[in-house]
Structures are given as structure tokens and as C-alpha cells.
User: Fold this.
Amino acid sequence: MATVVITGGSRGIGAAAVRLFAAQGDRVFFLYAADHASARAVAAETGATAICCDVSREDAVSSAFRQIGDLDVLICNAGIMHFGLMSQITGEEWDRLFAVNVKGIYHCVNAAMPAFLNRQRGCVITVSSMWGQVGASCEAAYSATKGAVIALTKALAKELGPSGIRVNCVAPGVILTDMCAGLEPEILEQLAQETPLERNGTPEDVAQTMLYLARAPFVTGQVVGVSGGYVM
Assistant:
């Protein structure tokens, strides 16, 4: 039984990962920012432990990890997005995106590191996006953060590999979560038709890939696209 920590675990991809790892018999903790009702529901359904924590704050992350203790798998899933022209993004919005999407990983990896180094093993899974691979118009800031996640993943894999710590990344495509809730059905259908598998993804599709990476002992430094082939 592994101890698994999942950030952004109250909804969407994170909640699907909580459900899947808990179903495997793992001891699961998940961090969430503000949606108390959803967090309570996921915890009640799965038996996982919910901890309210803004991953952009180092003190909050340190406090959360003190409650967790040793861990085996860290899934850095928490993220936010912004849609709009580059010229319309404020400095505050830009900084907030990087604070959550990139610095949040920095805080969580550093908090997990003592346990990983002490046992000379561990697994980190980051969550980027296909837009981190190829960029998206009207999502420049979001794409920039997700590109940074990919670079950070590869660098950490090289840095931490000699200590027995694996670091991999999933890059989801169009996944039917709250982030897609504002899209018209016609647009979602068009995106599905542009995907070789001719459908949009589900949170469970991404969670299954996370489970594979958590269990794959000789895989590190990889970016695994979960986009149905939309980006190759």
C-alpha cells in the first residue's frame, strides 16, 4: 500500500485520481483550495483525507505535509487557467497563474523531498497540458506555465534520478472537466472530430495514465500525452 498525495483533488482530474488510487487500496491524501463541499464528498466516497491548502503558499504546503508524513507518490495536479488575449492579461493574473501552476509544484516537491531522500525512492507526477507542448492562441499565459511544468519535470528527473526518485508528466488534451464547462457543445464536438480517436477525454483517462506512471519503475523524465492523439 502506497501513500499518495494529490493536489487539486476535489474535482475533475484530481478527484478521478483520488478515486482510482483509493480503489487500489492506497492511502490517499488530497489537497484542495476552497471547494469544501466537493472535498467532503470525495473524502466520504473514497476514504481519502482532504486537506485545505493553497499550493501557492509555502507555509500552507509545509503545514499540510506535516500532517501527511512519509509519502511514496506525489501528484502535482492543482492548476488554474486564463483565457484571453496576451494584451488583456493583467500582471496580477499572470503572476497568479505562475504561482499556482508552477510555484505550487516547487513548494510541494520541496515538501516531499525529505521523505523521498531519506528512503532513496519516490515518484512525482506533474500535470501539464497539450498547450504546454505546442501553445494555444488566447491562452499564452496558461501555455507558458504548462511549458514550464514540462521543462521542470525533465530537469528534476535528471537531478533526482540518482536518488531513486522518478519524475514524469502527463499532458492532457481536451478533457471534460469544469475547465471545458464554458465551451459550446458545437465547439466540443468539433474538437472531438479533430482528435484521431474522435472523442474528448475524461478525467478517468488521465487518472489511468497517472496510475501507470506511479507503478512504472523504469520510466522517468517522460511527458505522456493524454489527448487522444490531438497533439503528437
Q: What stands out?
A: The longest strand covers residues 165-172. Strands lie at 3-7, 27-32, 49-52, 73-76, 122-127, 165-172, 223-226. The chain has one domain: 3-226.
